[in-house]
Amino acid sequence: MKTRYFLVLLFLWQPISFCQLIGPVGLAGKKVTSLTIVDNTYEKLLVAGMESSGMNFHNFDDDDSVWIRVFFSTRSPSCVYAQPVSPSLTKLFMALVPDSSIDKTLIYTNIMPIQSALPAEDSGLDKSKVKLIKSIAGFAYTEKDSVMPAYCCTNDPNIYVNEDRVWTVSRAGEETVTLNFVYTSDSTVWAGGFNNGPIGTALLLKSTDYGKSWENIILPVGEIFSCYSICVSPNNPDTVYVGLNEFILKSTDKGKTWLMCLDVQGTVFTSIEENPLKPGEIFAGGRTSNNDFLLYKSSNGGREWQPVIITCNCIIKGINDMEGVVINNQFQLYIATDGSGVWKYYDKVTQVEKEEIIYNGFYLYQNYPNPFNPETLIQFEIPAGAKISLKVYNLLGKEVAVLINGEYRHAGFYSVKWDSKDLHGDDSPSGIYICRLVAGEHTMIIKMMLAR
Question: Distance between CA atoms of 211 and 151, rounded to whole angstroms?
């Protein structure tokens, strides 16, 4: 007598949260260098700087695909930054990669929504030394504090401050210093990069007096590491995340002590964002050594991380910048890529017909750990004896490893390790792999991420 197993589906209407990475939502195929949010009484915009295409605006009231190119349509912004200067006005900074055939102005500004022209605002910068603006950040308007300085780091080792449309040196850096970013939160300014001195080390600087003095923060990493990004929690100002090459570090005491909370070899974490609506929901974005897309998410303050899997059949370039924004009480993360336009990640809560699945005893569990390096454990369950095939494929469909090849297994629970070796015994490269289980007429797949 042939035994039959059934899959029972129960349908219930209830709110379900879906995590979606969609795109490109604009500027498809373009290198987007940076993003910033303009948010005042009159308008709420996403602003993007794009290589060889100037500054582009997206109004959040419009469809995702609608972008307007407004300034310097053939120039390349190195960074853009929006500084609130009153409830109704925003000062927009745009730094351009110098182009000697046109002019050598480094920084332009625009007061939105009133002003349509962009006057130069790079007075005080020595253009014989300062060739590239890497990052701009500043403090927003408050009723009790009229000080609204902005800061920038450049290709030289100094940190500059702008308090009255003139840039002056806030911190003179050693010649061995390379800075990658500046960042502001509450009354604190942060800057990060690398000090290639006698002992090369990651560099993280902190000022709590608007840049008048700076403290060198010691990080628990070795010689080859550099700071590329930082995020102070909007839900707890004592909590700080720093992105380096290969690591995310976390401090819960404003930078006095640090813990390593994510380690992915061969990567650079260029941007970190926290969801203000969900304390502890962190996004760490960057690129692999091949300049491929890299995005990790933690829902518990960095204790556990999962890669955001790309479900489309496409290759997305690495992440240059990310900006989070709350629209209609929903957090949306916009992602600037290094050649694939702007993408968006969001949690969509909707009323759906939920499938409650009662399994028939056949199941392929998610591998653990995931991501992994170099080994991972794959577990599966079968309700009856059958010939089993368990194989690993790359995203092109090429067979990479054969773990079980048509062997008979009795009903039960099984565990198999994959050591990330391919069919020739060589190490498989970092990337996403498909594990496929076939037992009789049943088939199931999972996605696995090897992160060397």
Answer: 9
| pLDDT value at residue 118 | 81
- 411 pLDDT tier (thresholds 50, 70, 90): confident
Indicate the Cα dihedral angle 207, 210, 184, 236, nearest 10°.
70
Tens of pLDDT, residue by residue over 322-375, are 999 999 888 999 999 999 999 999 875 443 343 333 334 677 888 888 889 999
Consecutive H or E run containing 69? strand 68-71
**What is the token pair recorded at 205?**
């600087």
Q: Is residue 158 within 8 Å of 173, Cβ to Cβ?
A: yes
Same domain, 328 and 398: no
Do residue 286 and residue 411 come from a single domain? no
Q: For the residues of 113-127, what is the DSSP string, one character each?
A: TT--S--B--TT--T
On the CB side of 431, how many CA atoms lie within 13 Å of its CA?
Answer: 17
Most confident of 4-13, 88-97, 218-227: 88-97
CA atoms within a 13 Å half-sphere pointing along the CA-CB vector of 120: 10
340 and 214 share one domain: yes
Region 309-320: mean pLDDT is: 85
pTM as predicted: 0.73
347 and 361 share one domain? no
Residue after which a domain boundary falls, among 305, 327, 352:
352
Q: Tell me phi and psi for residue 211, to 5 degrees.
A: 90, 5
pLDDT at position 357:
35
Tokens describing residue 93: 């900074």
Torsion of CA 120, 125, 128, 132, to 10 degrees: -70
Q: Residue 294 sits in which domain range?
A: 14-352
